[in-house]
Amino acid sequence: MKIFGNVLALLCVFAIGMGAADKDKLSFQQAVVENGRGLLKPLPRVISWLNNSHYLEMRETKVMSINARSGKSTLFFNIKDHSELAKHQLTLMNALDWTADRGTACFLKDGKLLIYRMATRELLSPEVGEKIRTPRFSPDGEAVAFTRDNDLYVYYLDSASIQRITIDGSETILNGYASWVYYEEILGRRGRYRAFWWGPRSQRIAFLRFDQSKVPVFSITRSDGVYPELERQYYPKPGFPNPEARLGVADLANGTINWLAVPHQGEHYVAHPRWSKDGNALYYQWMNRGQDQLKLLRWRGPDAEPQEIFSHNRSTWVEFLEEPDLAILNKGALVIRCARGDWAHLFYVSPRGQVRQLTRGNWAVRAIHHVDEKRREIFFSAAHRDSAQSHGYRISLSGENMRCLTPGPGWHSLTTAPDGRLFLDRHSALDRPDKLDLRDFQGKLVRAIGDSDSANVARLKLDRMQLLRVPAGEGFELPMLLLLPPDFSAEKSYPVILKVYGGPGAMSVRNAFPGSRGMSGFFLAQMGIVVVAADHRGAGHHGKVGMDQMHRRLGHWEIHDTTKVVEFLTSKPWVDAERIGISGGSYGGYVTALALASAPEVFHFGIASFSVTDWKLYDSVYTERYMDTPEENPDGYKKASVLEYIDNYRGGLRLVHGTLDDNVHMQNSLQLLNILQDAGKPVEFMAFPGERHGFRGPKQLFDSRCSIDFWSRMFFCRPWSEAE
Fold first, then answer.
1. 147 and which of 177, 260, 356, 422 could share a cystine (Cβ 3.0–4.6 Å)?
2. Are 160 and 141 in contact (CB under 8 A)?
3. Confidence band for 515, pLDDT divided at 50, 70 and 90
4. Domain covering 322-453, topology
């Protein structure tokens, strides 16, 4: 389960003090349709680093190469100059992959592979068949690996020849293409189902093979056409069979495949293979199905057995080491980010597997950005000062001389040059919009690149924003963002909307400017509503101390702590305790529905979008990580189910779901709706035909209008008009 950007935007709200004059108000068009575009100055659209000294920037139809230190720009390419692509409704900005020198791009068009040469402006259509997926150039740019009919292939550009790597692909055997639950919960959406990894010498490919023949199929009905079609999805739910994964390494020179051993043969996960820089070793991870044991292994070739070089066990759950969590050094040493104790910290692992902790304290390391082996320094992000902030730091490989590189409070998002000597720092705080700076490895400001501040921001008066800490008992203080109505008066009484997500480790309260996507919160405040975002103890601000309390009891602390936030708010004379609303999507929809069903005396109205309603209905990997299986934890599943609290529910819930949601199936909302109807309980329901997990385009705007109208009807007993 992931967090959607538009949900996060509503969560990360801030208060403004707009004058009473209509000219200072945001219209629906400005706040929702345009997402506040035009109110802020646009920052430069940086695409990526090109090399150690230059980065690429998008300017209208041109991609410019920017000298990072001087700011001097030269044309890298102009999209208009590549008209051959336009004939096929393609654009260079939508290329699926590039060679390392950016000289060749690849595309998919109607399932066919297309190769585009920048220098000659040739668009080639190799004879490699149809239904091509996940193309990826080799590091030397001389070949493209791809999957077709769930087998793995390599196409060599110069010889126009094809090498077939696997031969057993089928509907249930997937080679190099991720089974759904691995894509969603383990490998990540950014990979677009790709489950193969080139070796740095372009001679070997590591890939995952999935056998999903035992995984139950979930069917989703499409509503278009006269006779609807079914989408078949291999979707494991808690306690049901998972896809069986194996990790293979294909040697392209002789066509052999080495299948890598795992520590234990019981139900498990294999994931995140990473090559060493010289290509002589492959690192990969094994985790048991219970997700409380993790092992990192190193394979040095077909003549060697894999070696365990790092392990992590915990009584609650452990997590895979993703790319920002693991740096592989030249001689086999590693730097790892891991929550071995109560907080995520840095560890140095020697080539022989000896572990030494580098950072300590009641704060969390967020990501490893770069390791400079010559200077023996690590560049990383952390919440050292405040859990609602993020800064860049460096520390020696011996764990000494830790230094902050990003001055000023707020949230800093960092992108390092390949050699780590320079980094782009996009930063903001609640009271100031985003800036983009270039800094060197010592934190020295090299160049101020952009500032999104404008006269509009000054006119909005950010002084009504409040970031507070609410006591929740047991030593936990919950961070809370408060957005007040523009003409706030302590003599009046206001309704409240709490914007929630609530998943373990998924914090939403940050000391960061929300930018253009946060204008929805402004619009609700203009209606005379207090808008609040708060994080419970398990959201990540309190490390594993807080998160571990959620183990085997999802839903409990989310409602307990959010209730504490409401108690804090209703202690204020300007909050109407009879008009408390709550809203969220995905996991936030679950928390919303559970709040209205289990604590109706606290929460009176809510919008639950594409929500889990019973954890037995969600996927195995995510759910079992926190809840174990229904057989192992029947009481926990029962107490966490919204369906168990219908007798308490009093009304005021709006359910929203996409009919083609392949993540949280609409089955969740329908089962809740069925029980509510049979019990004669009032509820609103809106299905969005053809939409998946989150809405796009016209339906997204329609949902926004309906949501605003819902709050107007619930809080003010009148329908909302866009003309207001």
1. 177
2. no
3. low
4. Neuraminidase (2.120.10)
